[in-house]
Amino acid sequence: MSNKRKLKVKYSNVFFIIILIIFIFFLSSAQVLLEKEIPKVEVEEPKVTETSLSLIMVGDCLIHGAIYDDAKTTNGSYDFSKMLELVKPIIQSYDLAFYNQESILGGVELGLSSYPRFNAPKEVGDAFLDLGFNLVSLANNHTLDKGKEGIYSSLDYWRNKENIMTAGSYSSEENRITPNIMEKNGITYALLAYTTTTNGLNTFKDEPYLITVYDEELVKADIERLRDKVDLLMVSMHWGEEYTHNPTEEQKIIAEYLASLNVDIIIGHHPHVVQPIDFIGNTMVIYSLGNFIASQYGINKLTGLMAGVTVKKTTIDDQTTITLEEPTAQLVYIDSKITNYRHDYKLYPYNLLTDDILENYKDHYNKYMGIVTSLNNRVTPL
Fold first, then answer.
1. 7: containing domain
2. Among 26, 43, 60, which residue terminates a domain?
3. Which of 245, 235, 301, 302 has its CA nearest to residue 276?
4. Which of 136, 134, 102 is nearest to 272 (CA)?
5. Which of 260, 271, 275, 303 has CA 20 to 30 A from 242's CA?
């Protein structure tokens, strides 16, 4: 190759290298300008917080004479702890625990009494508080059994109990309409309670707050007063027909109405036997929890329901939602044997029963749990 051609090739290579350098320079400069002209946008992740509480609900505490006779001690006081001891670990494992105090706690001063007009020792309340109960309904068809005197005695008992929420019976209208709100695990909650029956006994026109009888307008006003102030709103309903496992049309109508007002949980009792658990939209409806402790004849009246649920609160930025998760159902049996000419009562979770205690207890379990879960497959039997 001639020197002239070699020189030409050499210049071509140099020119190519120069062009490549210029191209890389401009590319880098463009990238720098691009980064300067288009700022990076950092997307903030939504702030999410979650908390929960556990709730268990049981039915009627109906203290017949045979029960308080069994609880009577040698010094004349009453001790119900032994008959309730097997359910204590279950109740205490929950954050909130509800029951219906069916027998008025008028105390021995008013004279203890059984069916049809009940009055129980105040030690009943002590025993249930010791079990871990902290939500109590005072509105039912036996609230009026001892008149005003019985109600005021009951309210006096509950008045000074710390961290206990009662509903359904009040000492004044101001007390009734003043929101009673508590908080657990960052979740605020409230309880309302009503009865559809008073056993034909007249309520007090001059003091209607002594017992809250169900009325649509009254209930609507009560719920609207609370709904935006609490995360969890529970309504206790004493309703239905005694000794039937099927909810009545009235129960269904009331449940639909309460659900339309965005109540979270409807807690039903009065039939003295278990009825189904269902959901109407986001509202949990327990039609009847049955008896928790009582002295009535028949396995159906001696089998009660303990209904559990996890209340979950999720907050995304400033938006909060409440969901009811993991609904569960446990059955309890009220055992009674005659010992030394008196009844010996004991409350058993069904999973602790044997055929010696209740013959064919597995068949009874399947029957009554079948009733409880018949309307909704979300409920987990325990």
1. 1-43
2. 43
3. 245
4. 102
5. 260
Q: Could you give the number of structural domains in the chain?
A: 2
> Which tokens hold the place of 327?
């609904």
Q: Could you report how far apart the first and last alpha carbons of the chain are, in Å?
A: 98
In Å, what is the CA distance from 9 to each residue of 2, 12, 310, 371? 11, 5, 83, 97
CB-neighbour burial class of residue 104 (10 A; exposed 0-12, middle 13-18, buried 19+): buried
How deeply is 227 buried, as exposed, middle or buried, from its count of CB atoms within 10 A (0-12, 13-18, 19+)?
A: middle
Residue 349: asked if its preceding bond is cis (omega within 30°), the reply is no
Q: Are residues 186 and 121 in the same domain?
A: yes
One domain, residues 138 and 24:
no
What CA–CA distance (Å, rounded) separates 318 from 305? 37
In this prediction, residues 185-207 reach a mean pLDDT of 95
Tell whether 193 and 250 lie within a shared domain. yes
Token couple for 206: 């001059």
Residues 4 and 139 in one domain: no
* Tokens representing residue 359 in the block: 């013959």
Residue with tokens 């009792």: 269
pLDDT in tens, 306-364: 999 999 999 997 889 999 999 999 999 999 987 766 789 999 999 999 999 999 999 99
DSSP class of residue 111 equals -
Does the reported pTM lie above 0.70? yes
Tokens linked to 365: 């379990």
Residues 263 and 319 in one domain: yes
